[in-house]
Amino acid sequence: MESTLPAAAAVTALHDALLRDARWPAHEPAPRDDGLWRWIQTNHCFNSRLWAEEDLARRTQVSDGEIAANKRAIDGFNQARNDATERVDELLLVALGLVDPASARTDAPRSTVPAGSRLNSETAGSMIDRLSILALKVHAMRAQTERRDVDDAHRESSRGKLLRLEQQRGDLGGCLDALLADCEAGRAHFKVYRQFKMYNDPRFNPALVAERAGAPARKA
């Protein structure tokens, strides 16, 4: 039976194809399914939006208000990117039979990991998230190798960095494939690690709690 698990090469191909579309990420094509691939694409979308906002937030000739707007957008996109990463992990663990499906989305999913399986500290979802970021780096560095407003030294330096980034992406993809193969064979497992971004939650961020109470927030 053909595996339903994502191969790193397919993930990388999707990331690159989306980045080649000049309309991305403002325009999102329909994902190849409404499950795992939808969330892999969603993760890549928010990483792409984060990338653009991070560039804008470094501007030095705009108003403080514009930079503040960039920073607020970064917070929102980062939260959405992490949420998508967690959803990828949930769906992979269910597909691998390593978690009880009814509890997969809770803060305490019930493990169905076989005895003797080793725990991998990094999740498959976080590796896919890193592949997305590497795709953005590869895409941006390749653009540097094609610039005509810089000298040959800049382009040559960029080509060297591009080769290193592509090597890093290949290494990470191999690690992802190996982890999923080990999980499928019962040799390894991972868990969903909830990020609990407290600074984005008005119930937990002390500065936001103080604002709601009408008191000045204490400085660290």
Written account of the structure:
The mean pLDDT is 93. The chain is mostly helical and 220 residues long. It has helices at residues 8-20, 36-56, 64-96, 124-145, 152-184, 206-213; strands at residues 118-119, 188-189. 59% of the residues lie in helices and 2% in strands. It has one domain (8-193). A two-stranded parallel sheet has the order 1-2. Helix 1 crosses helix 4 and helix 2 (36-56) crosses helix 4 (124-145).
Q: Which descriptor suits the 3D outline?
A: globular
Mean pLDDT, rounded to whole units?
Answer: 93
Radius of gyration equals 20 Å
Read across the widest sheet, the strand sequence of neighbours is 1-2
Quick synopsis:
The protein is an all-alpha fold and 220 residues long. It has 6 helices and 2 strands.
List keywords for this structure.
single chain, 220 residues, mainly alpha, two-stranded parallel ribbon, globular
Q: Could you give the topology of this structure?
A:
Layout: H1 8-20, H2 36-56, H3 64-96, E1 118-119, H4 124-145, H5 152-184, E2 188-189, H6 206-213
Parallel strand pairs: 1-2
